[in-house]
Write a structure and sequence with these properties.
Layout lengths: L3 H12 L12 H21 L10 E10 L13 E5 L15 E5 L8 E2 L19 E5 L2 E6 L5 E6 L4 H5 L20 H14 L14 H9 L1
Parallel strand pairs: 4-5
Antiparallel strand pairs: 1-2, 1-7, 2-6, 3-7, 5-6
Helix pairs in contact: 1-2, 1-4, 2-4
Length: 226
């Protein structure tokens, strides 16, 4: 996977013909914003078309901490179930038809998974004779809530996050290093090429001439990414 630095450099290098100077009107941070914006748009299109999502686009919040909250406001829970809330807001995910793009909520070791619900639907879950006893999760005002029959202090959350940097920097007391622009960016090589072309054309008014692909494989791949 390319890094964010590599993508920013590639776009600016093409745009300015290999000549970089402090007088360039477009900053690295502006180009990085366009890259994030276009990446989210392409992922949204893939989700809308129900295309398979490459593993390289998915990020993992390995240690999301939780604290128990008063279950008094959570009607519809069976006796004995606990309600827990993440101690921090979950970074925003790419939206798909008004829904979040969290892929999985599971135990840190991946041995146990939670089922998705919503704040409004949760009180009816107990009436489903097939899934009434499942442990569940939902988002409310950016916080992740889980219902379970015993207390849990940490979980692993995987998803398609709108800003990869926010997800990569979602660190607690794990001693993990923060994200840098030289780290691998959660993107495929084909998508990186598509993003470069879109940013050059829509933001900088440059249409790049690509080599002919007689087999049409390249066009097909880019269409799939869009």
């Amino acid at each position: 996977m390319p890094s964010l630095n590599e993508m920013v450099y590639d776009i600016k290098n093409i745009a300015y013909g290999g000549v970089q100077s402090d007088d360039n009107r477009v900053s690295d941070h502006q180009v990085a914003y366009w890259i994030r914006q276009t990446r989210a748009l392409l992922i949204n299109q893939q989700l809308a078309n129900r295309n398979k999502i490459p593993e390289s686009l998915i990020q993992h919040l390995n240690y999301v901490e939780f604290t128990q909250v008063d279950p008094a406001n959570f009607t519809g829970l069976d006796s004995g179930y606990k309600v827990m809330k993440s101690t921090k807001k979950i970074p925003p995910t790419v939206q798909r038809d008004g829904r979040n793009s969290i892929i999985a909520v599971e135990s840190v070791d991946g041995s146990f998974a939670f089922s998705e619900t919503t704040y409004f639907r949760k009180k009816y879950n107990k009436y489903n004779k097939y899934t009434f006893d499942k442990s569940r999760w939902y988002l409310q005002e950016g916080f992740l809530y889980i219902t379970h029959n015993f207390l849990i202090d940490k979980l692993r959350v995987s998803g398609l996050f709108e800003n990869p940097e926010d997800a990569a920097n979602f660190k607690l007391d794990t001693g993990e290093a923060a994200f840098t622009w030289d780290d691998d960016y959660p993107i495929t090589s084909v998508m990186a090429t598509t993003i470069t072309d879109i940013v050059l054309k829509t933001k900088l008014g440059i249409t790049r001439q690509m080599p002919n692909d007689e087999s049409n494989d390249g066009d097909e791949q880019q269409l799939n990414e869009r």
